[in-house]
Write a structure and sequence with these properties.
Helix content: 40-55%
Radius of gyration: 13 Å
Strand order of the largest sheet: 2-1-3-4
Order of helices and strands: EHEHEHEHH
Number of helices: 5
Largest sheet: 4 strands, parallel
């Protein structure tokens, strides 16, 4: 069974590419939000059963936007990609970083 994920990323195309990269690792991007408002509009009405197990925030969200997501996550863990990681090292480095961080959360139990 895959772990449901909500992604906050400014670039939907990049999030879709990352979605395909994460699928074989057991993570399913159920929702992709490209703004703080879209996150609020998507996340708030979800029932407890439909909520993601983790929220990933891309480097395109600045610190204020990431903090807004964290403040509205209702206890769901939030992992933030370091701002320059994608630009400096690309999608494989982001995937490795996130897989390492996700493994610490033990979501696949």
């Amino acid at each position: 069974m895959s772990v449901p994920v909500l992604v906050c990323g400014r670039h939907r195309e990049l999030a879709e590419k990352m979605k395909a990269m994460f699928a074989p690792h057991g993570y399913d991007y159920k929702y992709i939000c490209t703004s703080e408002q879209e996150f609020k509009d998507t996340f708030a009405p979800l029932s407890h059963e439909d909520r993601p197990k983790v929220i990933l925030v891309g480097g395109g969200f600045d610190e204020n936007a990431a903090n807004e997501v964290k403040a509205n996550a209702d206890g769901v863990p939030v992992l933030c990609v370091p701002a320059q990681l994608m630009q400096e090292q690309g999608p494989p480095a982001v995937m490795k970083y996130l897989l390492d961080e996700l493994s610490k959360l033990n979501l696949k139990q």
